Amino acid sequence: MAWTLITAENLLGKFTGGEDDAARSAALAIGQADPVPGIIEDVVREVRSAVATCAKNKLGPAGMIPDELRGAALNRIRFECATRVPGGALLDEDRRTANQNAIRMIERAADCKMTIEQPDEVSPEIIAGPAAKLVTSTRRVASRSKLKGL
């Protein structure tokens, strides 16, 4: 299958040493749960939305992303997790660059500028795309002379 599920375990290969624990526990309020599952869910939704924006693509099973965007998604997740650590201790220039590259790659998928292997199983999920046409008329209705005296 050309689509994959992203889990917290996949993220372990992107962090070193105790960085995973730092990202999970930094700046937690009392009673606040592990933020990583929510971050993973947000980035997966971001990737699926980008894939769906390209009319040539079909969405795979819920919660899964194309293998072609797996690395980009993991870089985005790592970056979002790292922003939780106070003082930016986990945010070096390499990670910032990797995040920007990941965003560009996801945008390329949305712009139909990269080939995504279509899933074996198509999701019935419908993700709204951008509006087809925002401006319906460019003819000016109001003018200075029509509004004179108001």
Question: How would you describe this structure to a colleague?
Answer:
The protein is mainly α and 150 residues long. Helix content is 43%, strand content 4%. It has one domain. It contains six helices and two strands. A two-stranded antiparallel ribbon has the order 1-2. Helix 3 packs parallel to helix 5. The chain is extended, with a radius of gyration of 21 Å.
Brief synopsis:
By secondary structure, this protein is mainly α. Helices cover 43% and strands 4% of the residues. The longest helix is centred in the first third of the chain and has 18 residues, at 36-53.
Topology:
Blueprint: E1 3-5, H1 8-11, H2 19-25, H3 36-53, E2 64-66, H4 70-82, H5 93-110, H6 144-147
Helix pairs in contact: 3-4, 3-5, 4-5
- Sketch the major β-sheet: 2 strands, antiparallel
Shape: extended
Across the major sheet, the strand order is 1-2
Q: Stretches where pLDDT falls below 50 for ≥5 residues?
A: none
Task: Please tell me how large the radius of gyration is.
Answer: 21 Å
Note the gap between the termini: 65 Å
Strand-residue fraction?
under 5%
* Subunit organisation of the chains: single chain
Number of strands: 2
Number of domains: 1
- Number of H- or I-type helical stretches: 6
Helix content: 40-55%
- H-E string: EHHHEHHH
Label the structural class.
Answer: mainly alpha
Let me know the average pLDDT.
83
